[in-house]
Structure formats: structure tokens, C-alpha cells
UniProtKB/TrEMBL annotation:
Keywords: ATP-binding, Nucleotide-binding. Residues 29-109 form the ABC transporter domain. This is Methionine ABC transporter ATP-binding protein. Transmembrane segments: none annotated. It comes from hydrothermal vent metagenome. GO terms for molecular function: ATP binding; ATP hydrolysis activity; transmembrane transporter activity.
Length: 113
């Protein structure tokens, strides 16, 4: 997929599953999204709908199984460990259980993300 320079994140045909054979559980089904630079996006859904799986994929915390994820113009499907590490350093990720540092201000906590 040829990424668009104005998109920070772009996914096409993204699928993800856990397990194999009879135990295989599909978590993401053919996700096609674009997140333009400077935009604000909200990801909502019920528990178990794949939000965390999606976020860990676009945050370079999980390998892409099927489909395309482009982060900052780099294809993540088949990316090397070095590419993943380099891109993680250029992006921030705050987990739901965020474990904030009480001694830091909100801005300092965000800057550490």
C-alpha cells in the first residue's frame, strides 16, 4: 500500500487473531483506517472488541499478522525489530493502566510516554 504523507497512521485489510485451529479467535476483521496528521481520533467499543489489540499493533508493540499498518510512512508488516524500536521512540503510548508517576506533573508524565 502506498501511504499518504499526510497520514500518521494508515491501515488496510488489517486482520489479527489469537490461537490456531479450532481455538483460533479472530480479534480484528479487515480494518481500513486513516489517521491524518494533526487530527484527533477516538477509538470506542465494548470490552473485548479489539481496541487494545488494534492499539498495540499501531504502536509497534505487537507484530502485524495480516494486512498493512503504516506508521509515519513505514510499513510495519514484516518490519525488523530495529524499525519497531526506532518508531516506538518517535511515538507515545499510554496504557489504560497507565501507572503515572505521582512525583511528576501531568505534562511530565505525558512527556515520558
Amino acid at each position: 500500500m502506498a501511504g499518504h504523507e499526510d497520514n500518521v497512521i494508515e491501515t488496510q485489510g488489517l486482520n489479527h487473531w489469537f490461537g490456531t485451529g479450532e481455538a483460533r479467535k479472530q480479534a480484528l476483521f479487515d480494518i481500513n483506517l486513516q489517521f491524518p496528521r494533526g487530527s484527533l481520533s477516538v477509538l470506542m467499543g465494548p470490552s473485548g472488541s479489539g481496541k487494545t489489540t488494534f492499539l498495540t499493533l499501531i504502536g509497534c508493540l505487537r507484530d502485524v499478522m495480516d494486512g498493512s499498518v503504516q506508521l509515519l510512512g513505514h510499513e510495519m508488516n514484516g518490519a525488523t525489530r530495529a524499525t519497531n524500536e526506532r518508531l516506538r521512540k518517535r511515538s507515545g503510548f499510554i496504557f489504560q493502566a497507565h501507572n503515572l508517576h505521582e512525583s511528576l506533573t501531568a505534562m511530565q508524565n505525558v512527556m515520558m510516554g
